[in-house]
Design goal:
Oligomer: single chain
Number of strands: 21
Distance between the termini: 35 Å
CATH topology of the largest domain: UDP-N-acetylmuramoyl-L-alanine:D-glutamate ligase
Strand order of the largest sheet: 7-8-6-9-10-11-12-13-14
CATH superfamily of the largest domain: Mur-like, catalytic domain
CATH class of the largest domain: Alpha Beta
Number of domains: 3
Length: about 475
């Protein structure tokens, strides 16, 4: 049975609302989506593409303990207990702040142009070795995801890991102030969302907003290899933070000394002063190795035992849309599908191509990259798409299938032998891809969410069927 998350009177006070009735069951969670709502959750009726008030009835039908609604909501006969507030989003923020006030957990906040979710998940795995650990679900890192994650934090959590994202300047500041982390991690700064920023340096400034939310005496975990390290370091100093660095740089506090990257994960020896930490990362790709160094630095900053925690990194596996590897049972032999369809930017596409290149040719002789447009790159978009050619060639890609007007520029720059097909959209590319794939191929599919590359993943799985996820090596 799920433990009680909030007492009714406590939640009403935290939301600064007015109770109408009382729940018949304990409150064990909060939800903003009736499709994933669990019995005992309080449904929060937010307004986004749809008005959450339209789904209050469905929430109670699914077993909601109560609903948090606006003052103007008209109760229906099947409704249960309500908390009426002026604005459900502001009320959710208030509950999140109340949860932060009542907790004794050590809190880590993670931001960065890429690697936020994987670093958050790695920290969740590692800190769970030390005690109950609460963390953001999926990529709940925005203006509603952060307060929802805080509001869901159990009283007995010893650690919490929250992901904080942004698309525009100023977005991180209020979220970091809500979270008030003991440790703030910036994974990296890369040319992402350039449509909203004048330069990558401006992106670094926006990422550094997280440092202003640190509690007094808090620590900033910073990427020593990044070209914008000095800017981040100065921001940390201005915030009065302790600085802990990570990377390959010889001056990094937590640095990679020896790395062996394989198709089923990587073996790493990291150094911190005279200490050495040998461990394995279960997810393949050098980007996961770099993230693991950030994890070690954060573990140290939060006071965790690195030697106890680091073995948990072997359990790290890429989730669907972010590098999940599945064998498809094609007639004549398996096809390895690498699902990177959730999102894309220049850094993450390069990382995905390099990770695909770790797949041995003897297992999968032909490498196929399926790429969709990287969005929100502004005036630099054309050059950044063309600039992927070097990474495609370095990864030994045999065929490129692409969709979207910007990826057309990349395809045109490739050697004719590498041009699989191009189409205006992922839907229009589907048949050409399915006709070209052979048993033994490794197929990596990646693009921005708006490029809808998940359609191609579904088409591949529909045609060939999923056999099994690719496992990890032990050790």
């Amino acid at each position: 049975m799920a433990e009680v998350l909030w007492q009714w009177d406590e939640l009403v006070a935290a939301a600064q609302g007015r109770a109408e009735g009382a729940p018949a069951t304990p409150i064990t969670g909060l939800s903003i989506d009736t499709r994933s709502l669990a019995p005992g959750d309080v449904f929060v009726a937010l307004k986004d593409a749809r008005d959450g008030h339209e789904f209050v009835g469905a929430a109670f039908k699914a077993g909601a303990a109560a609903a948090l609604v606006s003052q103007a909501y008209a109760r229906s006969g099947a409704d249960g207990a309500l908390i009426r507030v002026a604005d459900p989003l502001r009320a959710l923020e208030a509950v999140g702040r109340a949860a932060r006030v009542r907790t004794d957990a050590r809190i880590v906040a993670v931001t960065g142009s890429v690697g936020k979710t994987s670093t958050k998940e790695a920290l969740r795995l590692c800190l769970s070795v030390m005690g109950p650990t609460h963390a953001s679900e999926k990529s709940y890192n925005n203006h509603w995801g952060v307060p929802l994650t805080l509001a869901r934090m159990p009283k007995d959590a010893k650690f919490a890991v929250l992901e904080i994202g942004m698309n525009h300047p100023g977005e991180i500041t209020p979220l970091a102030g809500m979270v008030r982390p003991h440790v703030a991690v910036i994974t990296t700064v890369e040319p992402v969302h350039l449509g909203q920023f004048a330069s990558v340096a401006d992106i670094a400034e926006a990422k550094a907003e997280i440092l202003q939310g640190l509690v007094p005496g808090g620590a900033a975990v910073l990427p020593r290899d990044n070209p914008h390290f000095a800017l981040l370091r100065d921001g940390a100093k201005a915030a009065g933070a302790r600085i802990v660095t990570f990377g390959y740089h010889e001056e990094a506090d937590f640095r990679a000394i020896q790395v062996d990257i394989g198709h089923r994960g990587s073996s790493v020896i990291a150094g911190h002063g005279s200490q050495r930490f040998p461990y394995r990362v279960g997810a393949p790709g050098e980007h996961y190795v770099k993230n693991s160094l950030a994890v070690l630095a954060a573990l140290s900053a939060v006071g965790a035992d690195i030697m106890r925690c680091a073995p948990a990194l072997l359990k790290l596996t890429p989730p669907a849309g972010r590098g999940a590897r599945v064998h498809l049972a094609a007639p004549g032999g398996p096809i390895l599908l690498i699902d990177e369809s959730y999102n894309a930017n220049p850094a993450s596409v390069r990382a995905a191509l390099a990770a695909m290149a770790t797949t041995p040719r003897e297992d999968h002789p032909r490498r196929i990259a399926v790429l969709g447009d990287m969005l929100e790159l502004g005036e630099a978009s054309a050059d950044l798409h063309r600039g992927l050619k070097e990474a495609v060639d370095a990864a030994g890609v045999d065929l490129v299938f692409a969709c979207g007007p910007m990826m057309r520029l990349l395809v045109d720059d490739l050697a004719p032998s590498k041009r699989g097909a191009w189409a205006a959209s992922s839907a229009e590319l589907t048949q050409a891809l399915l006709d070209a794939v052979h048993p033994g191929d490794v197929v990596m599919i990646k693009g921005s969410l708006g490029s809808r590359m998940a359609l191609l993943v579904a088409a591949m799985q529909g045609r060939f069927g999923s056999e099994r996820p690719q496992g990890r090596l032990g050790g």
